[in-house]
Amino acid sequence: MELKLHKPICFFDLETTGMSVSKxxxxxxxxxxxxxxxxxxxxxxxxxPQIPIPEESSLIHGIYDKDVAEAPAxxxxxxxxxxxxxxxxxxxYNSNRFDIPLLAEELLxxxxxFDIRKHRPIDVQVIFHKMEPRNLSAAYKFYCNADLEKAHxxxxxxxxxxxxxxxxxxxxxxxxxxxxxxxxxxxxNKNADLAGFVGLDKDGDEIFNFGKYxxxxxxxxxxxxxxxxxxxxxxxxxxxxxxxxxxxxxxGAL
Length: 254
What we know:
Elements: E1 9-16, E2 26-34, E3 40-46, H1 55-61, H2 65-68, H3 74-85, E4 89-92, H4 95-109, E5 121-123, H5 124-131, H6 136-144, H7 154-171, H8 179-186, E6 198-200, E7 206-208, H9 218-224, H10 226-234, H11 239-253
Parallel strand pairs: 1-4, 4-5
Antiparallel strand pairs: 1-2, 2-3, 6-7
Helix pairs in contact: 6-7, 9-10, 9-11
């Protein structure tokens, strides 16, 4: 089925140095423009972000500093990007929350105007999530082929979760029936605390996931800025996070 179009629509995707809309930069942009007559044009640019690409980002999209060393800066390709998307609607996957805001930041940062009111954004991920719910009732129906009665009662939800896991183990050969594997497979972010304020670096040391010391070791910061520790302990952080703050401070004092 072809899209019914009254004006062009540009599907686009960004690869970036990270996930911060305000701080990170584009390293690749690809645009697929579909016209009302169903003709299409596409263009992909590598972009020199003019800041180092973190290794964890490169491992995801496969673009390293050496790959963009000779690529143009975003300011150089911005006129081509704007020319391609002008008078077009915009579409992407998770684009409403990430790609469009970051594209706008890059354009404005480099002195180019961008007005979202000129483009009707369409986010394919939102359609997916609205049409294919990812709650426990939907999982129970999908994996166990049954309706979850008394959903949102603790007892029914607990039993359903157990049944869903067993069904998943039967359905997916690559999902091993091993608790260690299941733990590692379902752990998306390796954090030292439960709320995600404290991460772990490659050496296993606690690092800040937020604030002015983001990426820095807790034990090092607490040695040089004791006032920051005091502020953290008096601020509205979860008690478990405060426990990790204190353990790291004691570790740094040893």
